[in-house]
Design goal:
Diaminopimelate Epimerase, Chain A, domain 1; globular
Length: about 270
């Protein structure tokens, strides 16, 4: 068995501290493997990121298509911050013009709007579709929400002292394949604090789909309005619900460009 090596180009972006490696591969030639993703996203031995996104050409009505993998190499249906980072990446690369366009995701077609970047920063927003409330338990203030991916939202009195990693890991057994877990502290009807455990990753500085799930749940529980600032550990994200459709907005940052080498057996 022989090894052959080849180089790929990657770009790193973050939204509220939620960071992604983005590979633009419009013809889908590389077809990154789960082991390669795990190696590249490893923070000690690789470049490091919360997830890995491959951007390929148009499909299903999308101007581009995104495929998202978690740190462990598993597929994820969608990430709100990942989607916003993709919007920034394709505008920055000149693949699409600044403004409104469509991205096909694992959770379906999503509308995005992205400004022309100013330096390394772009302002953007993404439709997260129409989240579904699977169940709400009023007496314990928790809800199961689907934003194209599964979420368990739990309202807590305070995030201070809460072991998000331990509690999030414990709750993974509630859903086969794992579940994203959001712990939210209500500040007022337009602001919440969020701690998040992402399946396949662990605690992260932010979660876009989790921020949306948190607002859908807190509104269903009568605790917030439909327009909320979600204070993620890595920074604020804005969520609004309009006629059942959720929109996530904020800024994204271009961090760096990389060229790295992959080795595969032949």
């Amino acid at each position: 068995m022989e090894l052959h090596s080849f180089q790929i180009g990657l770009t790193k972006f973050d939204g509220a501290g939620n960071d992604f490696l983005v590979m633009v591969d419009l013809e889908d030639r590389v077809q990154i493997t789960p082991d390669e993703v795990a190696s590249l996203t490893n923070r000690q031995h690789g470049i490091g990121s919360d997830g890995f996104i491959t951007v390929t050409g148009p499909s299903g009505g999308g101007d581009v298509t995104m495929a998202l993998r978690n740190q462990d190499g598993s597929f994820a249906e969608i990430s709100g911050n990942g989607l916003r980072c993709v919007a920034h990446a394709v505008v920055r690369a000149g693949i699409v013009a600044a403004g409104a366009f469509w991205v096909m995701t694992g959770a379906g077609l999503r509308r995005v709007r992205c400004s022309a970047p100013e330096g390394d920063v772009a302002t953007n927003e993404a439709s997260m579709g129409h989240p579904e409330i699977e169940s709400v338990v009023d007496d314990v203030h928790e809800a199961f929400i689907s934003v194209g991916n599964p979420h368990l939202v739990k309202v807590v009195d305070s995030l201070e002292g809460l072991d998000v990693e331990r509690e999030g890991h414990r709750l993974q057994s509630l859903r086969q394949g794992g579940i994203n877990v959001e712990f939210i502290e209500i500040l007022n009807d337009q602001e919440i604090n969020l701690g998040v455990y992402e399946r396949g990753v662990g605690p992260t500085l932010a979660c876009g789909s989790g921020s949306v799930a948190a607002v859908v749940a807190s509104h269903a529980l009568g605790l917030t309005s439909e327009i909320v600032t979600v204070h993620n550990p890595g920074g604020p994200l804005a969520v609004r619900i309009e006629n059942g459709e959720a929109w996530l907005s904020g800024t994204t940052h271009h961090i760096a460009d990389f060229v790295t080498t992959l080795e595969r057996s032949s």
